[in-house]
Write a structure and sequence with these properties.
With about 290 residues, the chain is an alpha+beta fold. It contains 10 helices and 11 strands. The chain is globular, with a radius of gyration of 19 Å.
Length: about 290
């Protein structure tokens, strides 16, 4: 687990209002695949008051709080296309449902009980892992494995939870950083010193996962970073990175366009270059930073 705790100015560390958040997601089956096994989810946590009956409705005011946390998730199904499509959808549903019912996961918990928050996020992945394996067994179908990359923002902390080879990036100012490491056999060999990064990039093992939700093994990689209003996170499946380099992703994010415009431009670029796989891109940003 990696952590980053550099101090920030209060103006950039403070929680943005919901109206300031610009987030968008887009998925495309590409030009080769007949179905789309990619799925994404963008959601926020709120505390709400469900009114069953009252005689003072005009006095109650808002019945839902501002966002207490924000989630961005991307899943890329692995294996046969029908099973892959179902697996990635089930994984996102399982994670979101687990976190919905998790006990009081919110900004206060993330700051004061960081390790507890991490364990709760890992439990969400484990819940999805078990749900997929159980579904495959009961349905008598092949593995419904999937990658899963999640960014959970509970101001002023952000948690990256990652399984597989989808990716999470962050642009802060001009600094562009990949927050995940591909869980592939090729990358494992690079880390062991048995293969150069250049050789790994050309290797067929680049697309062989050793960790995936619903497979034999799912090992979540967790990275904890500070949350800053300057941040522009981007999540994507490998359908984007097969055709678009990290440098090109950074270049598009630096153009200061809306999240929707950036997502559409990157998907279009991957399609122009062949679109050999399903393509999913999710991006978020704060529209205006008051200094």
């Amino acid at each position: 687990m990696a952590t980053e705790t550099a101090p920030l100015k209060s103006s950039t560390q403070s929680r943005p209002a919901a109206s300031e958040i610009d987030v968008f997601g887009l998925t495309h089956q590409g030009r080769v695949r007949k179905t789309n096994a990619d799925h994404f989810l963008i959601c926020s946590f709120h505390r709400s008051l469900k009114i069953h009956a009252t005689s003072i409705s005009k006095m109650l005011g808002p019945t839902e709080t501002e966002s207490r946390g924000f989630l961005m998730l991307v899943a890329d199904g692995v294996g046969g296309m029908d099973a892959a499509q179902e697996g990635s959808a089930h994984a996102l549903a399982a994670v979101s449902q687990h976190l919905l019912h998790a006990s009081e996961i919110c900004s206060h918990m993330a700051v004061q009980q960081e390790e507890t928050a991490i364990e709760e996020l890992k439990k969400a992945v484990a819940h999805a892992h078990d749900a997929l394996k159980e579904h495959a067994e009961q349905a008598g179908v092949p593995s419904t494995a999937t990658t899963l990359s999640m960014l959970a923002v509970f101001w002023p902390r952000a948690f990256v939870v990652h399984v597989g080879d989808s990716r999470v990036y962050r642009l802060r100012g001009t600094e562009f950083r990949r927050l995940t490491t591909d869980q592939t056999v090729a990358q494992m060999m690079v880390e062991a010193g048995a293969m150069t990064p250049e050789a790994a990039d050309r290797s067929k093992l680049k697309h062989v996962l050793w960790s995936a939700v619903g497979s034999q093994e799912a090992v979540p990689q967790v990275t904890v970073v500070d949350a800053d209003q300057r941040d522009r996170p981007l999540l994507c499946s490998d359908g984007l990175t097969k055709h678009v380099s990290d440098a090109e992703i950074r270049e598009h994010m630096l153009r200061d366009l809306s999240s929707e415009e950036t997502c559409r431009a990157l998907v279009d670029l991957a399609l122009e270059r062949g679109g050999s796989d399903n393509i999913t891109v999710v991006m978020g940003r704060v529209r205006k930073l008051a200094l």
